[in-house]
Design goal:
single chain, alpha/beta, Glutaconate Coenzyme A-transferase, 2 domains, 12 helices, globular
Length: about 300
């Protein structure tokens, strides 16, 4: 079997500009920071980005000017405030964006995962989001329809099939069989809807460990193209059972993200001047800081 273990740099080299990328993080949890930094270093631009709930990873890519089309179901930096770069890009109309609910994004991924061209739902009838989609750039992706059996009204959502999906997990084997502890959000649907699937894992374990609890294998290895083994790959965001978020660095990030010129300085200091994620971790404080953030084995945080 081919070796699926790759570095973030190797994987990103294979992704052309203009790609539709799906990210599996949520606000400030399990963000694909190592991958996003590499996308910025390699300047992969004109990206279409889809995500159920956007957070730090998306804010970084949008702030770096690499996103041309954003498909999102809301988002923020949780207790640290709004995603300033995303909000600024929307206000200045420097990118095309479509607003959904996080549930309807999940249904679009589910349609893609099932090999269907669309998914019928009802929940958007209760929201003005539907009218905004119909009047905006999402008009070609939503249609009202009547059930031929009951006459009930439905909204048809076009399937969302990313070119590449990235999901950060706690545990994986070398073949890509993965376990996700804690909340999963739309990760399973997003992963199975994509044409290419890359997982970033905190820990590589023997396949025998995965086989002890087969019901916990959320993403099976046969769907995975590559495995990036990157401990602490989501810092400064948190990973349940592994480490908490770095509140000091998130506050620093927010202060820089409020202004475009200061954001450029943040990128220069924490992305472009780092060869890889290990150098970035050193700038966050290295091993002493990591030890402070390491999760309690009982509570998971």
């Amino acid at each position: 079997m081919a070796n699926k273990l790759k570095s973030a740099a190797e994987v990103v080299q294979s992704i052309p500009s203009g790609t539709h990328i799906a990210l599996g993080g949520f606000a400030i949890a399990r963000n694909l920071i190592a991958v996003v930094h590499e996308l910025i270093r390699q300047q992969k631009g004109d990206l279409t980005l889809s995500q159920g709930v956007v957070g730090l990873e998306t804010d970084l890519l949008v702030g770096a000017g690499l996103v041309g089309h954003l498909i999102m179901g809301g988002g923020s930096l949780d207790r640290f405030g709004p995603a300033h770069c995303v909000n600024r890009a929307r206000e200045t109309k420097s990118l095309r964006y479509e607003d959904y609910t996080s549930l309807s994004i999940c249904f679009r991924y589910l349609a893609g995962a099932l090999g269907l061209s669309y998914m019928p739902i009802k929940v958007l009838f209760a929201s003005e989001i539907l009218e905004r989609l119909e009047a905006g750039p999402g008009a070609s992706d939503v249609k009202r329809s009547t059930c031929p059996f009951t006459g009930e009204e439905y909204v048809l959502l076009r399937a969302l099939t990313p070119d590449v999906s990235f999901v950060h997990v706690q545990i994986a084997d070398r073949d890509g069989n993965c376990q996700i502890n804690g909340a999963r959000w739309a990760n399973e649907e997003q992963a199975k809807a994509a044409r290419r699937l890359i997982v970033v894992t905190e820990q590589i374990v023997p396949t025998e460990f995965i086989q002890r609890s087969p019901e916990r294998t959320i993403i099976p290895g046969h769907r995975v193209e590559a495995v990036i083994h990157q401990p602490y790959g989501a810092l400064p965001t948190c990973v349940h059972g592994c480490y908490d978020y770095d509140a000091d660095h998130l506050r620093l990030y927010v202060e820089h993200a409020k202004e475009p010129e200061r954001f450029k300085k943040y990128l220069e200091n924490f992305v472009f001047s780092c060869r890889d994620h290990w150098e970035y971790l050193e700038k966050l404080g290295g091993l002493p800081r990591i030890e402070e953030l390491r999760a309690d084995p009982i509570s998971g945080y």
